What we know:
The structure is a homotetramer.
Chain A: H1 22-43, H2 46-53, H3 57-63, H4 67-78, H5 90-107, H6 111-117, H7 121-148, H8 158-176, H9 182-196
Helix pairs in contact in A: 1-2, 1-4, 1-6, 4-7, 5-7, 5-9, 8-9
Chain A binds a DNA duplex through α2 and α3.
Amino acid sequence: MTATTTVPPGPAAPRRGRPRDAQAEQAILQATVALLSEVGFNQLSIEAVAARAGVGKPTIYRRWPSKAELVLDAVDRLAPPFPTADTGDPLTDLRQIIPELLVRLTSSPVARATIALAGDPEMVSRLGERYLRPRREATADILHRAIAAGELRADIDVEMAIDMMVGALVYRWLVTAQPVDADTARRVVDMVWESLRAPGR
Amino acid sequence: MTATTTVPPGPAAPRRGRPRDAQAEQAILQATVALLSEVGFNQLSIEAVAARAGVGKPTIYRRWPSKAELVLDAVDRLAPPFPTADTGDPLTDLRQIIPELLVRLTSSPVARATIALAGDPEMVSRLGERYLRPRREATADILHRAIAAGELRADIDVEMAIDMMVGALVYRWLVTAQPVDADTARRVVDMVWESLRAPGR
Amino acid sequence: MTATTTVPPGPAAPRRGRPRDAQAEQAILQATVALLSEVGFNQLSIEAVAARAGVGKPTIYRRWPSKAELVLDAVDRLAPPFPTADTGDPLTDLRQIIPELLVRLTSSPVARATIALAGDPEMVSRLGERYLRPRREATADILHRAIAAGELRADIDVEMAIDMMVGALVYRWLVTAQPVDADTARRVVDMVWESLRAPGR
Amino acid sequence: MTATTTVPPGPAAPRRGRPRDAQAEQAILQATVALLSEVGFNQLSIEAVAARAGVGKPTIYRRWPSKAELVLDAVDRLAPPFPTADTGDPLTDLRQIIPELLVRLTSSPVARATIALAGDPEMVSRLGERYLRPRREATADILHRAIAAGELRADIDVEMAIDMMVGALVYRWLVTAQPVDADTARRVVDMVWESLRAPGR
DNA sequence: TTATAAACGAGACGGTACGTCCTGTCTTTTA
DNA sequence: TAAAAGACAGGACGTACCGTCTCGTTTATAA
C-alpha cells in the first residue's frame, strides 16, 4: 500500500499536474531498507536516504510525513511473502507455517530495526494492522480447522495460543539476540499443540 | 549500579577535588524517567534532560557515555522491586510471581520506552544482564523445584517454558498496546504448566 | 516593452498555436507590484507572484527569465507618466518638471524596491536605459534651451547639473527614508540654477 | 561596534560560561566580505559564510539575527577610515575630504553590495546611523566654519548642501556604474561652493 | 473539419539554503 | 577539581523556493 497523503477520491480521479514518479518511490524505499540494515533505525536520516536514492528531500516528505512512516512502508514493502499451507492436517500446517514465518522474520535485515518502531504506540498499531493481522488470521484459520476436526479442544483461546507460539519465539529472538532456527520453532509449536489437544486423541 | 566511567580505585580513596554531587545524579535520573514517559525514547534528548534536571550537559556526559546507557540506568533504577514467592507449592508460586511481574512491567511508565532499546543489540544484552537475568533465574528455580518434586516432566526445556510464559504476555502487550491483567497472566501460566505436567499427576 | 524570450519574426507573423494570454500577463505584473510594496524585492518570490496572480510558475518563466527582469518590467509598467513642460521659460519648466518627477518617484510604492535592483550592475544599466534616459533627456533639453537663451553659462556640464538636482533629492530620500516634498525639490532646483547662471543676469 | 544580542550589563559583568570566540567573529566577518565581493549580496548565503569561515551556522546566528545585520557589521568593519582635514581653509578642507570619501566609497569591493541593503528601510536607517552620520557631521563642521568665517552665506541649508555634493556623486556612481574619480568630485564641490558663496567674496 | 502547435493551471522533480535543534566537546568562572 | 553555564564545530531537521519538467486541457491557426 502506498502512503499517499491525499487519497484520490475515486478510481476515475484525473489527478491534475505532473504525476508522481514511481521510480523515485522505488529508489527511496530501497535506499531506506539498505540504510536500515546498515545503520539501524535510530541512526537513519532522511538526508541520507535522499542522497542514496538520488532524490531531493522534499520528494520524500511529499510522500511520507515522518521517518517512522517511511520505515513502516519500507518494511511492509520488503516483508517476506507470507507462507501458506493447507495440507489437510492442521498440525502439519502449523509445523510448516510457523517455523517458516519466524525464521524469515528474525533473519530479515530490517527485523531488528523494526523493533525501534515499537517505542511509539501509534506505530505499533500501524504495524499490527498492516503486517501482523493477515499472518495472525491465517494462523487462526488453521487452529479453527483443527477445532472443527476435533483435534483441539473447543474451548481454547485461539488468540492466546497464537501469542504463545509467536510470542515465545519473538521474545527469545529479541532477548537472546540470535536468529530463531526451524527446529526450535517446531518444538514450540508442538508444545502449544500438546497443551491444547482434545482429550483422548 | 551507577555507570561511573572512572571507577574509584578503592574504598578508602580520598578522590581529590570537588566530589560529585549525588543530588545531581538523582535529578538526572528522575528527569530522564519523566521525559521518557512524556516523549518516549526516540524523542528524548540529553539537552532536555539537562534542562529539566537543572544541570549542565557535561555533568551528564561525565557519568554516562550515551543516551542509551543513561536510559538503561534510569530504567534499572525505576524497575519494580522483584516479587518473590516460595509457598512450597510451585504452581502457586508461579501463579503469584508471573502475573505480578508482568502486570508491573507492562504498566510501568517506562516499559514501552525500554522497548526502543531493543533496536540496538548491544543494549539488549545489557538489559538482559542487568534486568532480565535475575528474574529469569527466580522463575527457573521454581520450575526446577517442580521437576524435583515430580510435578513436571524431567525432560522439559526450562528456558523455553519461561519464554513461552513471559514471551506470550510481553508479545500480547506489545502488539495489542494494552496492559496485561493478572487474570490473563494466570491463564497463560496454567496453559504452560498443563503442557509440562508429569504424566499421571 | 515586454521581455518575450522568443521575439516574433515580424508584425505579420501569425504564430501558430495558442497565443499568450494577455490577461495572465497583466495579472502577473499587478501581483508583482503588489507584492513588491508588501514585502520588498529581496523577499519577493516567483512562487508568491504565481499564486497571487492565479497562474502557473512556467507561465511566468516563459515570459521573464529572472525575478529581476520581471520586476524591471513591472516597475516600468507602473512608472509614473513622465511630466513635461515647455512654458518658454526654462527656469519655470525646471521648477515644474523636477519636483513633479521626484515627488512621484519617491512616493511610488515600488520606488524603494527598485533600489534593490541597483545591487546588480546589469540591472542598473537596464533601468537606466529604459527608465532614466528619457527623463534625463527631457531635463537636458530644458538646460540646453536655457544655455541657448543665454540664461545659463555656455560652459556648464549639463549631465553633472542633472546629477546634482536629481542626485541630491534621491539621496536625501534614500538616506532619510522620507518622501521628498515639492518645496524641497524646488529649492534644490533654484540652488543649482543659481550656480549655473550666466554672469550679469 | 559588535552586534551582540545580549549586551553585558556593565563593565564588571563576569559573563559566566565559555566566552565567545573573537577569532570566530573575525573569520566570519572576513568571509562575509570576501563572499560579498565575489557573489554580491543577493547570492550571499549564511551557509557559504559558515563554510568559508570554518564555523558552524549557529555560531553566526548566535551573533547576528539576519544576513542583513551580518553584512551591515561586515561593511562597517571594513569601512575606509574616515579622512579628516582642518587646514584652516574650509574650501581646501572640502576639496580634500569629499573626493577622498567618495573615491574610497565607490571603489570599495562591497560598496555595490551595500546598495542592496537599501531595499529595506530599516537597514537604511541602521546604515545611516552607523556609517553616514559621523561623515556627515564632519562635513557639516567644515561648512559651519566657513559660515562663521564669512566665506559662505549665513542662511544656507547645510544639510541640503551636503546632500547635493554627496548625492550627486553617489547618484552618478550608481546610475553610470562607474567609479567616481577625484577630479569629478572636486568639480562638484566647487559648483556647490560657488552657489553658496557669500556675496562680495 | 480535423490536425497540429503552443500556451494554459497544476504540481512533482532534483536541488540549495534556510533557520532551528541537538550532538558531544571545550572553556570559563564559581565553589 | 568538579560544578553550572554556555560557546564551539558539526550535522540533520523539516520548510520554502528555485527553475525545470511533465501532465491533461484549452485555444487558435493550418491543412
